[in-house]
Amino acid sequence: MRTVYLGTSDFAATVLRRLADSPHKPNLVVTPPDSRQGRGRKVSPPPVAELAGELEIDLLQAASVNEEDALERIRTAEPEALLVCAFGQLIREPLLSLTEILNVHPSLLPRWRGAAPIERAIMARDPKTGVCVMRLTAGLDSGPVALRAEVPTGDDNYGTLAPKLADLGGNLLVEALDLLGDGTLAFTEQDESAATYAEKIDGAERRLDLSGKASELAAKVRALTPHIGAYLELADGERLGVRSASAVDFEVAPRQVKFEWGRLLVGCGWGTLGLEVVQPAGGKPMPVADYLRGRPVPSFA
Q: Which fold has domain 3-198?
């Protein structure tokens, strides 16, 4: 089947690699222009652009896929299906009606529509999440669903869960295209009453509020590791990144800190948070025991 693929992120690149190994290898990949990324703010191509070059697939980098130049390039490719995954741009008419558009979304729709479904599922401590292949419509991830698959969230953080979902998404998309080619791909409308929204992670959410529940703070750490990063504010105003933490069955008074069993035990409003791997400002992630060499047990704001 002739396809055009629209994607941007590492997640989308994983799906593209699986697609390229199938009979549905795209003859055009569309992704945003190069941008400044990372701490050094170096101008770099999106992961999908890099992979398209490696796979020798024709590439279009467009600031807006809805502009006429981009539309004409896509029309020229004569796709039987447009495929979208973690693209980051809204798709509007007339592109929306050009052909069948399938979207790979990493949640169990209608739960967690929107920008940060993996993070929100972990933060909410959902026992399972998954991937859906759906028909893209004008609404926000509200189109009918064709295929879905589930995985347990367990103790995964974003860095371990996202690759599992990307692998699953690639396989589901290939299956969906096989069925579409056979004329047997069926869709089921979503239950609007069950919809929840995965808002983009706000910078303020990175801060761990010790007046909260230890179990919720541990879930936030997992959700934001390693790509965004959660932190605690030290008494002197510095930030201490938290890369691994868990709620522990050990009583510590709120905002008090103890060093036990190789962990910093921090009292919260409800329960105790055990810090296992931290990252000092300007430093690298390290076990708590290494962090405390030459440093006193910290106090938190």
A: Rossmann fold (3.40.50)
Where do the domains of the chain lie? 3-198, 203-291
3-class DSSP assignment, residue 220: helix
Number of residues written out for the chain: 301
Encoded amino acid at 56, one letter: E
What is the reported pTM?
0.95
**What is the third-level CATH fold of 203-291?**
Methionyl-tRNA Fmet Formyltransferase; Chain A, domain 2 (3.10.25)
Residues ≥6 apart with Cβ < 8 Å to 167: 14, 18
Question: Is cis: bond before 110, omega within 30 of 0?
Answer: yes
In terms of phi and psi (left: phi > 0; alpha: psi -120 to 50; beta: otherwise), the region of 141 is: left
What is the C-alpha to C-alpha distance for residues 217 and 119, in angstroms, rounded to an integer? 13
Q: What is the pLDDT of residues 108-126, one digit of tens each?
A: 999 999 999 999 999 999 9
Task: Give the C-alpha distances (Å, rounded to integers) separating 212 from 254, 264, 277.
Answer: 10, 17, 20
